[in-house]
Amino acid sequence: MAARPDLRPYAREVARIVAEIVKEVNSLPLEKQKQLLEKEYSWVIEARKQKEEREKTLPPLPGAEEGKVVTRFAPNPDFAIHLGNARPAILSHEYKVMYKGKLILRFEDTDPRTKTPLPEAYELIRRDLKWLGIEWDEEYIQSLRMKTYYDIARKLLEKGCAYIDDLPSQEYKRYRDKGLLEKYPPRLRGIEENLELWDKMLEGHFAEGEAVLRVKTDPNHPDPSIRDWVAFRIIDTGKHPHPLVGDRYVVWPTYNLAAGVDDHLMGVTHILRAKEHMQNTEKQKYVYKCLDWKYPEVMHFGRLKLEGFVMSKSALKKLYEAGTASGIDDPRFATIAGLRRRGFTAEAIRKLILEVGVKYTDASISFANLAAINRSIIDPRAKRIMAVIDPVPVLVEAIPWKEEVFEIPYHPNGKLGSRKITVKGPQATIYVSSSDLETMERNKVIRLMEAFNIEIIDTGRKPIKAKYHSRSLDEARKHNAPIIQWVVAEHATPLELVVPEGLELRREHGFAEEAAKSLRRDEVVQLVRIGFARIDAVESDEEGNVRNIVAIFSHE
RNA sequence: GCCGCGGUAGUAUAGCCCGGCCAAGUAUGCGGGCCUUUCAAGCCCGUGACCCGGGUUCAAAUCCCGGCCGCGGCACCA
User: Fold this and answer.
1) What architecture (CATH level 2) is domain A384-394+403-437+481-555?
2) CA A414 – C1' B57 distance (Å)?
3) A199-213 mean pLDDT
4) Strand B contact residues in chain A (341-400), C-beta within 7 Å
């Protein structure tokens, strides 16, 4: 009906005919229906296929032209970035690529008092962005652009769009809340006087809280926070020095002034930001209007939560500063660094963000969802390694060889090479996971994965008593033998598996097979029947012998 | 309280602008099966959603009104 609007007047009639035909088709046998569809209406099948093959892409950007799009990512360098910040960063980058435009990285560090920039954060953020595969074309640091903001302030004052307020803030609020802002004395000041006061501010005549520069807005705007908002305030940088510019400036622009001005000056065409900035857009527009600038297109989106993780920047910061975390990359953190340390790939994070898209609503990402995306990326390249947790020794007797070497591929797809495991006879001690004890009590015959079968004699002892049973997999199947991972005691390498669980870090101890010694830091492996883990450290003694391996559990 | 934005399965998302190809698609989760020298991967089957109530219309997830719920903002923070 959408395709044939000419039929609309006959809707009732058409509906009747359609119903008849549907009835007729349904009366045919299923096979006949299929045949008919393929023969006469193959285009229907084709169309379905095409629809299915369409890949998930971002919606088009309003008013965007290829080659002319400029986006920006503007973090506050008071901490490292986390998954929530990654959203605007990834989306901005994605749109830049989509439209062959530019991406600007801008550090918004104009509050040395309450959001004191962390000196190392600038570099941490750059590193995390690079790791995410984000490439930016220009970079700015706001604390290094103070003169620009001062020039704008002067312009606003000259045009009568702003004024200096040197009364106590309670006084301002009194006028504002009574709806008398139009009669607020500082607001009525002449341009010359404002400019003089501005110079005094810059020269340091005022202390913190004694004077601000306000932008004139609709004095009766329904949202009181928008009315004559503060664009510049005084910060005592003697007490709160800025990590980059120390105490060079005392007059500091607020977020709305600095960001608003920069977006125009840097030629930003599209702003992608979280919805807490919605009101800010409105504030900034007063500056734009005064200076006759065009406001960029803005897209707002909701918050992102990752199930089981601490997301709030302030909470993360608190834990970090309290020293209870192992660093900004603590695997319990949803920081980019934390997720990386836990074994999540940049590609998985990107896919997740693209999947969530640009909706207004908040999204609580389930951990299973992120894990599934990550799994599909790491599974083909993760070596399979056998490890046992909370190890239990098993003494296997009557082994019919002196020494046997088992060559086992690192991956069932056969593409990652293989390693050798040597088992000596006539008896050998191996370790299994304590979680497999129950299995061994229930089943007489057990297959040691990729090797041979053993018969359990006595689980009541330590070590558990067992004897060689047979070699082949077929034999194992015949006995319905469960297949478990195992580690030869002689070559067992101590393994510490760190399992993040909410705000807890559980440490499990066990052994990994000898081949684990050749693993490198950052490598992501699959601990067979346990799950994926990232190698966090391979610790050696002075002679270079591996003494301990630390792995961080990623997900199943 | 005031201002602003939303509400599709357990989770995420498509569809909403432009009403009919939607008895609502996809991914993940969950249940079952096949396959498999892993509890991984792969394959098959199943499960499960349009916040509620009215209205407009031949036809509403889609448009209109009311309600409910959630989120954001209400700083000399960003």
Assistant:
1) Beta Barrel (2.40)
2) 62
3) 95
4) 355-357, 359-366, 368-369, 372-373, 375-376, 379, 384
Burial A102-122 (b: 16+ CB within 10 A, else e): bbbbbbbbbbbeebebbeebb
| Interval A131-179: pLDDT, tens | 999 999 999 999 999 999 999 999 999 999 999 999 999 999 989 888 8
Nearest nucleotide to the CA of A527, by C1', is B38
The backbone region for A323, taken as left when phi is positive above 0, alpha when psi lies in -120 to 50, beta otherwise, is: left
Residues 171-190 of A with CB under 7 A from strand B: none
Per-residue DSSP letters for A456-507?
A: EEESSSSSEEEEEEE--HHHHHHTT--EE--EEGGG-EEEEEEEEETTEEEE
Residues 6+ apart with CB under 8 A from A403: A422, A423, A424, A425
Answer whether A242's CB lies under 8 Å from A112's CB.
Answer: yes
ipTM score? 0.92
The residues of A between 403 and 442 with beta carbon within 7 Å of nucleic strand B are: 411-412, 433, 435-436
Q: What was the pLDDT predicted at A48?
A: 47
Name which CATH class applies to A146-256: alpha beta
The predicted model gives A251-270 an average pLDDT of 96
Q: What are the structural domain ranges in chain A?
A: 5-53, 146-256, 384-394+403-437+481-555
In this structure, are residues A494 and A517 in contact, taking their beta carbons and an 8 Å threshold?
A: no
Q: Do domains A146-256 and A384-394+403-437+481-555 have the same CATH topology?
A: no
A110 touches strand B (CB under 7 A): yes
The answer to whether A219 touches A182, Cβ cutoff 8 Å, is yes
Mean pLDDT of chain A: 90
The answer for residues whose C-beta is within 8 angstroms of residue A186's C-beta and 6 or more apart is A163, A164, A165, A166, A167, A214
Chain center to CA of A47: 36
Residue A412: cis peptide before it, omega within 30 degrees of 0 = no
Please compute the mean of the pLDDT values over residues A437-441 and round it to a whole number.
86
Structure tokens at A346: 């940049």
